[in-house]
Specification:
Number of helices: 9
Strand content: 15-25%
Radius of gyration: 24 Å
Helix content: 40-55%
Number of strands: 8
Shape: elongated
Structural class: alpha/beta
Length: 268
C-alpha cells in the first residue's frame, strides 16, 4: 500500500528503524550477560543480525558476532563472500523464516561491516537443534530460530568453542505437521534412531540369530522389514531392513561393527 491509500509500507528488514528496533536485543544481551564472548544470530534478509551486531559492536567491540544461514538459503553468506549482493534463483529449507533469496542493500552493508563472519548449517543440523531445545530447554523453536543453536552445537566457529556464547532464538512458529519429521531427523542425526539394512540366508533361524545380536547390543527394534524379491538379494537370501532405537552415534556404530564381525554385510 502507499501513503495515498492511507498506508505506509514498512520493509520487513531493509529499514533503519526496523534494524534499530531489533538491535535492542543486542542491548539486552549485554545487560543480562556482560561477559559474553560471542553471539550467534540467524540471518534471512539481515535485519536482525544487522541490529544485534551494530548494538553489540558499538558497546563491546571485542565481542564476536556471527550470522547463521541455512545452507539451502545462503543469500547473505554468498553475498558477503563475493563482495556484492547476490540473488538466489531458489531457496529450500525448513527454516522458512529466513528463506530469503536476496539480502537488503542496507543490511548487506551493515552485516559486512559489523559481523565477524557468516556460517551455514544443514537441514539435519537445524533439526537436531530444534530437538535439543525441546528436550533440554523445553523450548519450541522454528527452523529459523534454531539455526543459531545449530551453529554452536556443530562447532561452526571453532575459535569460540568453550567460550561464553549467546544464541539468539528468534522464533517459535513451527508447523506441527512437519514437527514429527524434524524430530525424526534430529534423532537420526544424533544416533538415537539407526536404520540398518543387511542380508541373511533364507533359512529357518537366520532372522532370529540376527535379532539376538541386535538385542544383545542393547538396541530396541522400532520397525523391521523382511524382503525376498529385491535386487540386492541372492536367490537363497533375503534383505532385512531395521529401524533401531539406539543411545547415540557411538552405540549405533558399535552395533554395525558387531554385525559385520559376525558376517553380516551392512548396506548404505
Amino acid at each position: 500500500m502507499t501513503k495515498e491509500h492511507g498506508y505506509t509500507f514498512v520493509h520487513p528488514f531493509d529499514d533503519e528503524k526496523v534494524i534499530a528496533g531489533q538491535g535492542t536485543i543486542g542491548l539486552e544481551i549485554l545487560e543480562q550477560e556482560p561477559h559474553v564472548d560471542a553471539v550467534f544470530v540467524a540471518i534471512g534478509g539481515g535485519g536482525l543480525a544487522s541490529g544485534v551486531a551494530c548494538a553489540i559492536k558499538s558497546m563491546k567491540p571485542d565481542c564476536k558476532v556471527y550470522g547463521v544461514q541455512a545452507a539451502g538459503a545462503p543469500s547473505m553468506y554468498d553475498s558477503i563472500n563475493k563482495g556484492e549482493i547476490i540473488e538466489l534463483k531458489s531457496v529450500s529449507t525448513i527454516a522458512d523464516g529466513i528463506a530469503v533469496k536476496k539480502p537488503g542493500n542496507l543490511t548487506f552493508e551493515m552485516c559486512k561491516k559489523y559481523l565477524d563472519g557468516v556460517v551455514t548449517v544443514t537441514e539435519d543440523e537445524i533439526a537436531t537443534a530444534i530437538l535439543t531445545l525441546m528436550e533440554t530447554q523445553k523450548t519450541v523453536a522454528e527452523g529459523a530460530g534454531a539455526t543459531s543453536v545449530a551453529a554452536a552445537m556443530f562447532n561452526k566457529v571453532p575459535e569460540v568453542k568453550g567460550k561464553n556464547i549467546v544464541c539468539v532464538i528468534s522464533g517459535g512458529n513451527i508447523d506441527v505437521s512437519i514437527l514429527s519429521r524434524v524430530i525424526t531427523k534430529g534423532l537420526t542425526k544424533t544416533g538415537r534412531i539407526t536404520e540398518i539394512q543387511t542380508k541373511v540366508l533364507d533359512k529357518p533361524g537366520q532372522l532370529i540369530n540376527l535379532l539376538q545380536l541386535v538385542s544383545n547390543a542393547g538396541a530396541n527394534i522400532i520397525n523391521i522389514d523382511h524382503h525376498r524379491e529385491v535386487k540386492k538379494s541372492d536367490v537363497n537370501s533375503c534383505i532385512v531392513s531395521m529401524v533401531l532405537e539406539t543411545k547415540n552415534v557411538e552405540h549405533s556404530n558399535e552395533i554395525c561393527k558387531t554385525l559385520q564381525e559376525n558376517g553380516y554385510e551392512i548396506f548404505e
